[in-house]
Amino acid sequence: MTPFLKDIARYLYATCGEELTDCCLVFPNQRAGLFFKKYLSELVVKPVWSPQILTISDLMSELSDLSVADDLFMLFELYDIYCAEKRSKESFDNFYFWGEILLSDFDDIDKYLVNAADLFRNIAALRSIEEEFDYLSEEQVKIIQRFWQSFDPNGPGEHKKEFLNTWEILYKIYSRLKDSLISKKLGYEGMVYRRVTDLIDQDNLPSLSFDRIFFIGFNALNECEIKLFKHYKKQGKAFFFWDFDDHYYQNKDHEAGRFIRKNLREFGMEEINISYNKLLIDKDIQIISIPSNVGQARILPDVLSDFNDTSPDTAIILADENLLLPVVHSLPESLHEFNITMGYPVQETQLYSLIGHIIRLQENARENEDGSWKFYSQDVMAILNHPSVNHGYESDFRKIVEFIKNKNLVFVNETLLNEHPVLRSFFTRVKDQGDILQYLLNILEEIARRSADQDNPMQALENEIIFQLFIRIKRLDEILQGRKVEFQITTLYRLIRKILMNTHIPFSGEPLKGLQIMGVLETRVLDFRNLVLLSMNEGIFPKSPVRHSFIPHNLRWGFNLPTIEHHDSIYSYYFYRLIQRAEKIVLVFNSKSEGLNSGEQSRFLHQLTLSKLFPVKEKIIAYNIQANPERPITVIKDKMIMDLLGQFIKKEPSCKYLSPRALNMYLDCSLRFYFNFIADLEEPEELKEETDPLLFGLLLHSAVNSLYEPFGTEVISTDLLKGLLLYNERIKLSVKHAFKEVYQLPGDPDKVKIEGSNAIIRDILEKYLREIIGRDMHYTPFSIVDMEKKIMIGLPVINETGSFEATIGGKIDRIDFVANEIRILDYKTGRVERKVESVSDLFNRNNKNRHGEVFQVMLYAKLIHSSRRELTASIVPGLYPMMEINQDNFDYHILIGPPNKKETLGDFRIINDEFTGKLTETVGEIFNPAVSFYPTEITDRCQYCPYRKICHR
Q1: How many domains does the chain have?
Q2: pLDDT at 123
Q3: Which of 745, 698, 740 has its CA nearest to residue 412?
Q4: Do both 251 and 399 map to the same domain?
């Protein structure tokens, strides 16, 4: 395989020799010129001056008296003109998208030398199209007429009216923008190109100090380029070399040769000894289908090993630039040299995500009453956990995150965060529009300073990302300082996001060494012996031709502007030109239909497979997914586990105890009990912005305790309870005390500030306290014996290991004394069922509707009975469910018995022996080494289990 540029280098060196120094070579892109120099250097036998090598954009800029302005400057310039012409103060945020479309349209208009006045002409003035547009072909005129007939100004349709209103001012905007930029000696690229053609018409084009100009490897030309080429050809200075293959050039229906055929008719080409019949010979083409985007990158080691060549003759072409990092990480470790010749989008980087977190931090900030600021905890934790921020301070920042979670802080005061010197530049409230950009620049400088000392192989890339972000934000700051554009802060934030989204990180490297990794546009005029093309999906290669434009398709066609057909022909040429000299070609596409990806292979792959001219081999890579039979996880009680269980045997006051929650969990799923209480795999603790049922229950228990605690063992009468209802401040203070205790808030309870969703929870708690007081009035007089009382007992157990006492314990919500009854009450925030068929039913783990809340309060009654055997009063377990407590027929008692024969449990002692027997049996099983821990057979219980991923349920 001899590359096209190598043949050109041989020809020019043979025909021009040392005179090549006085020539100018013009290529479509810089990389082509770089490879040409490489091939030329291999031919020269003594030192010579290199010829001038330019891209077409460089040549146009050298000939024009205008400089290309940066896109941000032009957008703001266009915005001022747009607002003036439309006579409205549209926000820049809304304009940004339309502004980019306008600049793109204006660029096309100038590059294709369209008469903008005719294009944007008012419809009412288009009555004599044939006479006035005599420079267009008959077909073009008919297309324009058909379009405007559908936009009759007298016809109905609001969208037509809006289109025409905007259409009428476009020429004024176009003209004023050009005048403004020219006055500053600036222009967009199309203006620079058109200025060159104007100078040609004026016979005032600057003369170049070159005897000959060689135009090499071009395909689709705009009208400005065509005019320039003709100008130099007329002068006898221009010489043309086109890169093509006879297969698509001679086939008039093949879209890849559309522009080459036109160029050869217009300019001809130099006679050179090059074969143009390479596409159909010496090819090994393989098409690989794989149902994964990243999977395309993962197969690269195998593909490259088949090539057995990682020199610059081998290239990986990425139709989807987002695959760059997966590709780099998938390269074989043995590959030491590779070159990346494409930019990586900033929006795919960690630093872009950090900028997003910082912007959200400012958007969600709130002001305290004392003028200080507080920040939304989710934004704070996202920043503290970000690797670009916490590097070197992981331990410090982890403590802050744990503090936020433990306190369940929805908002975090800036004073807490600014105690750490590194965080001061991050957690500062920016209120003024003019300070926002400087705030971001300061943060980037802080990250850059801290990363300077890091020994990280990826640090060069991160530094480049920081640099690109810095210069984009700095440029925006410079432009805004010179303009009187008023922004809302949220608008400026959106603008920053949009600007950064369009930024790419350029990679630097040695382009003439090692494996080449590049995008599609970088491949123009280059040839490779071995090729891997990834993301060969329709809509990616070729890219979706849908483009936003103010100029409808019919008018684009009529005025010879680029259209969808133009786009498709260009990509067809890119593809076939790229593979025409390659010998080994691997084309990979993602067959998975997901999101915007249809899973459809590119049309070019269909063309290859359907044609009998190409030796195509197809390979399908699929995941071998099959449902293996579920193997339940069981944990055998070995010596280590039995030693851990020994912590629940009564030996000393500090030993662990089996709580109602633990025993309920064991009965529901013994494996979950093992994970939680034996293996200590704690369920993940997360910050809860919205109070979940468990947290709400803690708040309610704390509030009731605070309400009744001041009365001690005093007899509580109806009048006292009425007084509590009248004295609402006592109820409010009890709720505030609950928030202080549960969230561990600093300061006095009466100064606790409850806001956001917690304010709703506060109102509900106050309502529940009043309902509890109202219900308690039915049982006066009574006295509180204990609130939140923790009791532990030793339960005698005899099993295969011998006899011992297991520690059983729990914290009882409320113990009170009413009419010679000791009531054991448990508050429940949801609905509960107080009816059970039997005591044994409470221990039946296969009962889907086993009532754990009844088991809990029964166990509390057992604790009281065993710890206070001197009691002569009845021990009555009961439930106070908040969803039912205010009903007229409410009854807190437990009902036991078969359907239609249930009886009120008036004294736990009646069932104590039966309950104790079943409890002893269950606890004995826990300590039995012959009984393993195993998952429940009732899989409905697994739905919200935090360990379900371990069990694969």
Answers
A1: 5
A2: 47
A3: 745
A4: no
Q: Domain boundary residue among 505, 522, 545?
A: 505
* Structural domain harbouring 873: 640-687+781-951
Question: In the 8-state DSSP scheme, what is residue 112?
Answer: T
Distance CA 54, CA 215 (A): 10
CATH number of the domain that 538 lies in? 3.40.50.300
How many Å apart are CA 588 and CA 594, to the nearest integer? 17
**pLDDT at residue 632 in the model:** 73
CB 344 within 8 A of CB 504: yes
Distance CA 646, CA 655 (A): 9
Q: Give burial (CB, 10 Å; 0-12/13-18/19+) of 328.
A: middle
792 and 927 assigned to the same domain: yes
Residues 570, 484 share a domain: no
Task: State how far the alpha carbon of 100 is from the alpha carbons of 265, 487, 557, in Å.
Answer: 35, 19, 21
**Rounded CA gap, 930 and 172, in Å?**
90
3-state SS string for 258-269: HHHHHHHHHHCC
| 316 within some domain | yes
Cα 464 from Cα 460, distance rounded (Å): 6
The model scores a pTM over 0.85: no
DSSP string of 491-554, one letter each residue: HHHHHHHHHHHT-EEPP-S-TTSSEEEEESGGGTT---SEEEEE--BTBBTTBP-----SS-HH
Structure confidence at residue 420 (pLDDT): 83
Instruction: Give the relative orientation of helices 489-501 and 459-481 as an angle to the nearest 10 degrees.
Output: 130
Element (H, E) at 698: helix 693-708
For the residues of 304-315, what is the DSSP string, one character each?
A: HHHHT--STTEE
Residue among 306, 209, 210, 332 at smallest CA distance from 619: 306
Q: What is the sign of the dihedral through the CA atoms of 783, 786, 788 and 794?
A: negative
Scanning the structure block, which residue is given the tokens 């704390």?
702
Cα–Cα distances in angstroms (integers) from residue 699 to residues 111, 324, 693, 832, in the given order: 70, 51, 10, 19
Give the model's pLDDT for residue 260.
97
Beta-sheet pairing, 344-345 with 504-505: antiparallel
Distance in angstroms (rounded) separating the CA atoms of residues 762 and 932? 45
Could you say which of 149, 183, 217 is where a domain stops?
183
- Tracing tokens 């872009």 back to the chain, one arrives at 352
CB 171, CB 89: distance < 8 Å: no
Helix/strand/coil for 7: helix
532 within 8 A of 588, measured Cβ to Cβ? yes
Q: How confident is the model at residue 487, as a pLDDT? A: 66
Q: Give SS3 for 216.
A: strand
DSSP characters for 145-204? HHHHHTT-TTS--HHHHHHHHHHHHHHHHHHHHHHHHHHTTEE-HHHHHHHHHHHHHTT-
pLDDT at 202: 95
Here the tokens at position 503 are 């930024």
| Separation of alpha carbons 773 and 718, rounded Å | 10
CA dihedral 503, 508, 511, 514 (to 10 degrees): -110
Amino acid occupying residue 218: F
Asked if residue 741 belongs to a domain, the reply is no
Integer Cα distance of 609 and 37 in angstroms? 37
- CB neighbours of residue 554 within 10 Å: 16
- The rounded distance, in Å, linking the Cα atoms of 119 and 937 is 74
Q: Which residues of the chain have pLDDT under 70?
A: 122-136, 140-165, 433-434, 452-461, 484-488, 508-509, 545-547, 595-596, 624-631, 651-654, 683-692, 744, 746, 756
At residue 390, φ and ψ (nearest 5 deg) are -90, 0
Same domain, 395 and 492: yes
pLDDT value of residue 157? 53
Residues 351 and 336 in one domain: no
Cα angle 275, 217, 317 (rounded to 5 degrees) comes to 95
- Indicate whether 358 and 493 sit together in one domain: yes
